[in-house]
Amino acid sequence: MSTTATTVTPELQAYLAPLFWPEDRLLQELARDLAERGPQIQVSAEEGRLLGMLVTLSGARRVLEVGTLFGYSGVWMARAMGPAGHLDTVEFSPVHAEAARGWFDRAGLADRVTVHQGPALEVLPRLHAGYDLAFFDAAKSEYCDYLDHALRLVRPGGLILADNVFWGGRVAAGGGGDADVRGIRDYNARIATDPRLTSTVIPVGDGLSVSVVR
Ligand SMILES: C[S@@+](CC[C@H](N)C(=O)[O-])C[C@H]1O[C@@H](n2cnc3c(N)ncnc32)[C@H](O)[C@@H]1O
C-alpha cells in the first residue's frame, strides 16, 4: 500500500502504452488524419481505453457523447458496446461531423452511431432519456448545462463522465480565471456536492471525472 503516487515518466509510459492501450490500424489512421487536417484535441489512447472499459463495466447499451471531433473517443466507446449498443454523439462543426461519419463508416460502426450535428444545447433537449453513460468533451463553459441535461437523460446507476476537469492545472490556480476555468470549477463543485451523484476524478490525461447517478 502507498499514499504517494508514482510519477508516470516517459519511460514508464513507453512501457505501458503497447501493453495496455495499443491502437489498431484504424485508430492510428484516424489520429494521423487529425494530425493532418484537424485539431489534435482527441483523448489519448490511454483515456480511450479507459472510456471503453467504463462502457464495458457499466454494461452500457446507450451512450451519449458531447464533442465528437473526428470520432476517436467514439470509436473506443462504440466498439466497447458491441453490436447491440448505440452511440449518440453531438458535434457542432459540420466539418468535424462529416469527418466523424466517414471514420465511423470505415470502422464498420455506422449502424451503431448517430452523429447529431448542431450546438449541444440545441441537440440535447431533443434526446430521449434512458442512456447508460454520458461523456462530455465539448465547450468547457457549458459543462454544467450538459450536466443538467444528463441528469434527465442518464438512468439511475448510470455514469456521467467529463474530460479536462484539471484544465491543465488552471482550475487550481489562483484568480478568477476565464470562462472555461470558471465552467470547469463550477462543474467540479457541482458533481462533488450534488446529492444525486457520487463522483471522483481519475488523473488520466487532463483529468477525467466519473460520476455515478444515484
Ligand atoms: C475536444 S474535441 C472532442 C474530442 C473527442 N471527444 C475525441 O476524443 O475524439 C471537442 C469537440 O467539441 C466540439 N464542440 C465545441 N463546442 C461545442 C458545442 N457547443 N456543441 C457541440 N459541439 C461542440 C468541437 O467542435 C470539437 O470537435
Concise structural overview:
It is built from 8 helices and 7 strands; from the N terminus they run αααβαβαβαβαβαββ. The protein is of the alpha/beta class and 214 residues long. It is globular and about 45 Å long.
- The string of secondary-structure elements, in order, is HHHEHEHEHEHEHEE
- Tell me the name of the CATH homologous superfamily: Vaccinia Virus protein VP39
CATH class: Alpha Beta
The order of strands across the largest sheet is: 3-2-1-4-5-7-6
Beta-strand level of the residues, as a percent range? Answer: 15-25%
* Count of strand segments: 7
- Cofactors and ligands: S-adenosylmethionine
Total domain modules? 1
Outline the structure in words:
This protein is α/β, with parallel strands linked by helices. The chain has one domain: Vaccinia Virus protein VP39 (Rossmann fold, 3-Layer(aba) Sandwich), CATH 3.40.50.150. 42% of the residues lie in helices and 21% in strands. The chain has a seven-stranded mixed sheet, sandwiched between helices. Helix 4 (72-81) links the parallel strand 1 and strand 2 (86-91). Helix 3 (45-57) runs parallel beside helix 4. The longest helix has 15 residues, at 179-193. The radius of gyration is 17 Å and the shape is globular. Bound molecules: S-adenosylmethionine. S-adenosylmethionine binds next to helix 4 and strand 2.
